[in-house]
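During the reporting period the student researcher (J.K.) took over the structure-prediction task from the postdoctoral fellow and processed the backlog of single-chain submissions. One of the processed entries is reproduced below for the supervisory committee.
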Amino acid sequence: MVTAVLIVLIILLILILFYFYYRRKAAVVLMGLRAEMRMDGKILLGPVPASYRGAEKYYTKVKNTGFIGLTANTLYFRSIIMKPSIEIKLDSIVSVESSKHFLSNYNARPAVIIHTKDNVLGFIVSDHSELINILSD
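J.K. obtained the following structure tokens:
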């Protein structure tokens, strides 16, 4: 009985430590992205929380969370825990759409699917219509 309680306490301690690590790492990533976006020019959106849903080429297909931001020149995505760091020049974006299906996966929320000249990437944000409207202009 004592062993089971000790194991549960150790697991809780590990989860609490990971929670604080994740929050601190997210704050560092957010501050870094804000600074980078300020240097790039006029900020059009964000940075806001986003979920990376994968890409057809060049970037990982592993889904992860981070922050997405948009300046007058570039779309940025910074992951909190793992790669990728993504920068897409706005003049390389061919089209933008919204769909719940992306890379043979179904998403409960619509993904913003960005078609560039040589790749297709997907992101989920809380207000996908705002990101689509800004990128479509």
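The committee noted the following: The CA atoms of residues 57 and 119 lie 6 Å apart.
J.K. will present the remaining backlog at the next meeting.
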